[in-house]
Amino acid sequence: MYQRAIGLDQTFAPAYAGLAWAQNHEGNQGWSEDRETAIGEAFETARKALTLDRRLARAHSVMGDIQLWRRQHRDSVSSGFKAVECDPSHADSRMVYAYCLSMNGEVDKALKQSRLALRHNPLRANRIYYSALGHACFNNKDYSGARKAAVEGIRRDARHRGLRLLHAAALAKLGEFDGAKREATAVLALDPDLRCSALSNIWPYRSKERIEEFAEMLADCGLPP
């Protein structure tokens, strides 16, 4: 659809931003045979969108998401901020900004932006809104808040591995090990090949120590190393 729109108007920046989002999603979800190539193509497409319209919030937010998966964490936060600056009422931009802040370890800002994103979009918030909030809560050692956010996200997408793993980790932190093990088992039913060593492909944290902490917890819950 986005390529068709570009074919009709090669100067229509929103179509390039939408195509970049789709290309990035294909790469970071593991749906492409070559993950890095898909994300690289997304980066170039997002650059094209920004060349056409520097004030387009979605172009900046998509670029921030792409930079996050390219492990350009500071650039991702900067792009997220620019997206919100361009359109403060654009809820999806705040959601992406919040997720970038969470992955960068900026806990207080991530919490604020996650809650603002949900306030701007209370009825149609998708799973990533709750993933951003859940990680912000977890990083703030609010494990009850992380569990609640993960449950809300799972309600919107029961097959989302990242949310189920976050739920398992939050349950483990709360001492609810039976529930954490059930959640890890549910994740393996969705993806039998998933391993703790692949967690950085699910959560693009800047901190290797954070990923190692999650890996240790989830291994105790039954996720293979």
Question: Can you walk through the features of this model?
Answer:
The protein has 225 residues and is mainly alpha-helical. 72% of the residues lie in helices and 0% in strands. It has twelve helices and no strands. It has helices at residues 2-8, 13-28, 35-52, 57-69, 73-86, 91-104, 107-120, 127-139, 143-156, 161-173, 177-190, 208-220. Helix 9 runs antiparallel to helix 10 (161-173). It is globular and about 55 Å long. It starts with a helix and ends in a 5-residue tail after the last helix.
Low-pLDDT ranges:
none
Oligomeric assembly: single chain
Q: Please report the number of helical segments.
A: 12
What profile does the largest beta sheet have? Answer: none
Strand content: under 5%
Shape: globular
- How many beta-strand segments? 0
Order of helices and strands: HHHHHHHHHHHH
> What is the rounded Rg?
17 Å
Distance between the termini: 40 Å
What's the helical proportion of residues? over 70%
Structural category = mainly alpha
Q: What's the rounded overall pLDDT mean?
A: 95
Key phrases:
225 residues, mainly alpha, 0% strand, globular
Q: Can you lay out the helices and strands and say which pair or pack?
A:
Layout: H1 2-8, H2 13-28, H3 35-52, H4 57-69, H5 73-86, H6 91-104, H7 107-120, H8 127-139, H9 143-156, H10 161-173, H11 177-190, H12 208-220
Helix pairs in contact: 1-2, 2-3, 2-4, 3-4, 4-5, 4-6, 5-6, 6-7, 6-8, 7-8, 8-9, 8-10, 9-10, 10-11
